[in-house]
Records
---
Amino acid sequence: MSERRVVVTGYGALSCVGNNVADFWDSLVNGRCGLGPITRFDASGYRTQIAGEVKNFDVTSVMSFKEAKRMDLFCQYAMAAAAEALGAAGLPADLRAEDSPVDRTRVGVLVSSGIGGLGTLCDQMIALHERGPSRVSPLLIPMMISDLASGNISISCGAGGPNLGIQTACATGSNSIGESFWMIKRDDADIMICGGAEACIVPLGVAGFCSMKAMSQRNDDPLHASRPFDLDRDGFVMSEGAGILILEELEHAKRRGAAILAEVIGYGATGDAYHITSPAPDGDGCARAMSMALRHAGIRPEEVDYINAHGTSTELNDKFETLAIKKVFGDYAYKVAVSSTKGTTGHALGAAGGLESIACIKSIETGTVPPTINYETPDPACDLDITPNKAVKRDIRTALNTNLGFGGHNAVVIYRRYEG
């Protein structure tokens, strides 16, 4: 059997800086930060009172209000981004239609969440405590569990192929894309709807991260709170949303005349085996994931033109990720374009890999490196070319996305310009 190549034929985004791919990318390129005071609840008693909330989201644009009431917000976000991605790929919203251009049993879904339906869980815990067990919703479990992003998308569009979720904290989105890549490579599916979704800007989610002292406390200046690689960074800023890709086997995409946005050429996944929250101090796990992805791609480090770094704006991540890049790229680490778009978007946790993969693909499409905003004071431990504050025009043939998650998860996906 000839090698099956995997391409991207569609994408969809929902974020604090735009509710579609065009607006999301325009905000990244122009460094328009989407962070601000939390409005979902009274956060005045919390150490961190800022976040990146999705704004002006109209769920009835993708489903009825009755349907939406049966889904946690993270599933609603996933459904909205998936609808945009399917449309961009030229695929019908319902693959069961008689004139569908694809075999729906060969279309899979792997859309995941790092935390899942935390908002629903919190609401139902209050109902249990205040009103008793009989008042807990029968929809609690299907609304709460994180695999229901995939489940609801599959049910909605009729995708009957592989259907599952992956939970690897902040590496979730990239792991979901990478594993979907392999599903197509090994002929388990022709198309995969994949990525990540998150909606945990709720009291318990914010309180938990506050107790870890992992988030920025620049409450009086949210637009400058997320500052990846800056010496004065003081933690990440939580955000939310969804980033979804349509991956497709190349010949299948060509037969139906689909527009090809990029090719997926490599994927790496490793474990630090070090600590539940801290990355390995020598960057070893992240470095091995990058090396694995390069090996599967069959390319040298010098062939990578852009790295969208995990770059969370935490003290340890940014320092250790810099070490990992140096370990893999050697002297070329100082020449490759690097940036973290989390200065603009904040950290969307399980959705980060999907959104940042879209950033990689758009960078290839447009020849633009999106900036790392809020970079004011250089950190000697983070001394790479992190594209400070202003986007840069550059020919980008190959882009690499990295994401790291609590538990020592490392995920890397490599995208390349499709050239036939």
---
Amino acid sequence: MIKDVTTTLRSVPLRRPWGPDVPANHVIFVEVTLEDGRSGTGISWTPQIGAGAVQALLDTDVREAVAGLPAHPELVWDALSRHLSEAGRGGLVTIAMAGIDLALWDLRCAGRSLAEVLGARRESLPVYGSGVNLHYSLEELVAQAGRWKAEGLPAVKIKVGRPDLAEDVERVAAVREVIGPDTVLMVDANQRWDLHRARRAMAALEPYGLHWIEEPLPADDVAAHVELRRSIGVPVAVGENVYTVHGFRDLLVAGACDVVQPNVVRVGGITPFLRIAELARAFDVPVYPHLLTELSGQLALALPHPAMVEKVEDASLAELGVLAEPYPVAIEGARLRATGHPTRWAR
């Protein structure tokens, strides 16, 4: 039975800020202690805002709600979701729930790696270079693409959505020139467009052979995603800002996407992530986990469809200094593999 929950908040500076307003990521370490003295640790995470609110929710309502419950991730997740529903079904609520769920999975793993407990279906997966780089100058962007090329990465992703579409075209063209025709290129608009702008942008970017357009529209505008997908030839990827299984269900049933990208923290932890993965499997839609490389990599190794693992330059959990060595995954060349070590947090 769960006896107590304690939290510790750390703000971790980013070596490469994600913009003038995002100089750091915020991690709340969540320790769940059982009546028999065992404990497990998980994290809640926000790249920009809300960390204090998440910690306050964990320290009050969440802590009280889980006290006395058995240390069963699925049971606790469902009970906690019902209890917290008055505060919302996603957002800060599911981010807080992730800390509890990851801590309970840490207890379930009992010193084994998450990849081993889930049952890895493959030995390794390709890694793609990802940049939070919309604020970069063209020269900085080209230099980043050059670093990815030098690493031999098979795929890269850059941000689009500048006010002037001509700038997006210039930047995408420059990156394509650097990485060459054989490297997969994705673009991510981070919800900056409406349907009209998205159609215009995709027409202008068509010559550059895009693998997908990510978050072209507001994440909850299912109807607009359906219309966009019908009118362009580039696959549509969504999900990093979808918080619930029902949200993913609505996208899949509507035929709004070609790829789903749940973030294991934003959806509330490993328990709902696995439910989303099974739902996507029923629609034969691949799952590409979003950010948090060391967690996402272990999850991706266990997915039914092959995937790529996202690695934002200088911003993996290890590079942020919130993981203790030895790390649960290793990136060798352009591929990620599980090491067999458990996930241990450096608080």
---
Amino acid sequence: MKSKTAGTLYVVAAYVSWGLLPIYWKMLNQVPAAQIIAHRILWSFVFVILLLWGQNRWPEFKKTFSVGKNRRLCILTAFIIGANWFTYIWAVNAERILDASLGYFINPLLSVLLGVIFLKERLNFWQKAALILAFIGVMYKTLQYGKIPWVALTLAFTFGVYGLLRKKANIKSLVGFSAEMILLSPIVFTFLVIEEIKGTGVTGHAAFSIHLLLLGAGIVTAAPLLWFTYGVRKIPLSTAGFLQYIAPSLQLFLGVVVYKELFTSTHLISFSFIWVALILYSLSNTRLLKRQKMENRKWKMENS
């Protein structure tokens, strides 16, 4: 019980941290999104290097990364997670937190769809119904505004594909994350140097507090990930599934209440379809819906 409680607390801490991240990125809104993401990757690289060294996991890292298939997958996941981070930070500082929140509400259901397509996983009736409801929610928002919610779909798709590839790679979280940061760090370092040469970089020009926030970007990126990977091993997957909605719920709250983004009736209807879909999917493997399905089948047989 103590282990399960500790695991739950670590996972909750991770999701709360991810949910509150818009506050952190908002404090950096004077810095261009591309430079924020570059600093995030660079200081995450420094942080994971220290972790690998402190935990004496360099041999494990070298062994994993010596396999060609692992290297290729890490190169792919590195660019996918980079695209996800850039889109998210841009959305937060462009006052599109609601769209970002919608993306992370959609993500679990999109991950299910990717599992069906690429991992040949099978869905029951309620899970199929959940996917249909989520699709209706996205289409309603698209038709009402006359444009595809590309921020939400980009975030959902990139994170869903990232999770799928990481699952297929079967690489431990810290090792895989370290490989991604090591691969991206030379690129972002070169980018930051070029920005400084052009005179458009923030290093040496911004306030001291901005430099501290950029430096801390590595910690606020890596720490929740490590809390999550530690905690999720100690709790049932169903528990982790319910807890994952903490992050987008907090983002939605921040967007509407704190940063006063416009929440229209279209948002409400679109989000409602997706919330119902998430609830339905979360309950799809419980005895309640399984028993209901059996009773419906029995009723049809008796009245046929």
